[in-house]
Amino acid sequence: MTEDGRASITLEGVSVRYPGRREPALHDIDLTVAPGERLGIAGRTGAGKSTLSLVAAGFVPRVVRARLTGTAAFGDIPLTGPTGGALLGKTGIVFSTPANQLSASKLTVREELAFGLENLGVPREEMDGRIDAVLARLEIGHLADREPFALSGGEQQRVAIASIVAMGTSVLVLDEPTAQLDPVGTATVGRLLAELAADGTTILCAEHDPTILGGVDRCLVLEAGAALAVDLPGRALGGATLDPIGLLPPTLVRLAEAAGVDPAQAFDEAAVAAGLAQARRSLGTLDASSWTPSGTTPAWQPREGGRGVRIVVDQLTHRYPTGVEALRGVSLTIDAGESVAIVGQNGSGKTTLVKHLDGLLRPTGGRILLDGEDTSAVPVHTLAATIGFVFQNPDDQLFDRSVGREVSFGPRNLGRSTEEVARAVTDGLAAVGLEASRATNPYDLDLSLRKLVALASVLAMDPAALVLDEPTTGQDGPGVRRVGAIVDGWVAAGRTAVAITHDMEFAAEHFRRIVVMRGGLVVADGTPAEVFAPDNRELLASAGLEPPPSARIGARLGLGSTPTVAALLAALSS
User: Fold this and answer.
1) Which of 193, 237, 435, 446 has the most CB atoms at less than 10 Å from its CB?
2) Which residue has the higher pLDDT, 288 or 370?
3) Integer distance in angstroms from the first to the last C-alpha of the chain?
């Protein structure tokens, strides 16, 4: 251990098995992460990423009950010791869900950030300086006097990250820290991790987002609890590693491989664009469908026919009791059978808007019309039969003791027959790939699977409109493709689909229309090709967004608007 308290994280032969589980969550992991190194941890859902994060932070078995064999240490301090006193102030962990991180006892963000520092005995003068510095680094100084749980999910997540970074730990472990962040927020976190590593902080970050994974020094890919690869991110996340396990390499990596770009430059957009320009003729034979691993989930659609619902948002305003004006006169028409992705920075009013569609929030001014009917006097339970809403956080939605009972709750309360309910449950679980989990308690599943349970419970109700709030958060590649297939099938059946998302690739691939929000207003509205056109780059940046990778590469090559991989390949081959 160095004089300033920096040291390596070392795991030797580490295996972890949870009580009641037949298979280990981790198996024979050997790993060393040096001071100042950034290690990315990737893999499909259930591969062991979160468990490895808990081990590296010293939580297993001291806090989280599990059997650990092998050795895990921070320098010469065992991470598996009976008490955590020796690790106090040395290791910190950021969870994927801010509700699991924030204290729920503080009235302002500043007080929330002070909480950990107070427990470490940091002097008040130093405490204020640390708080101001981390608020600035994460660009959330304007939230300092806000109540944490009155913030959007993404804003809460930045506060959760700030609360741990402010403590100045030698080791920072992050478990999907950017899952709820807008693209600009994700880039901000990436820059912060680079700065912390330059100062000597050891960083382990489990992520699905290529923006973060592409910036690490090394990337560990896990499969079924075992290390599949540890290498440069451009090589570890390449097709040779990921295709056999059903994961799609990040778009930039796939493009780099197609163009023969050195894996060390796979996340360098300029290098990838230059390589594509040189290899343009040979790329003419590429087909976008060939970039999808075998076994892609087929499109799913409602069993019953029926049309979607026409949604009219007319001069909608909403002011919260705190005085925050989240919507400032939004007008929007979504036709029956249309698919619309609503995008924008954290706190732009997206979730506030869609919560008005099913009556969870009522307008301060303006109105919502469903097929011409004003919803102001319609009860929430009645609206739920028409508008199927899937929450961003599934823990706000799930409550029953088994997955099967959870999915059956909606159709049962709509008065469906026993046979109809049984069929709806079977179809809903099949759509999200959880048939084998029917008897499982939802809270025995991880976050990404709980989100799929919540989705299945809404599908089972067979509503006219499907409203999804950040449906790809925490999902691995197969999970994202499954949700996309559901949206595609839903719209093909004539139903209405609306989604809030920070995943610009998902929005461009699966929605015919993109609505951009900023500061409680709609600032852009059009097709993916229109919204993600090169001329809109500045407007998107003002809304905390950036175009998908294929659009950015197309702009570098002067190919016009190429919001999807298919559009980029078509432009390259023309």
Assistant:
1) 237
2) 370
3) 58
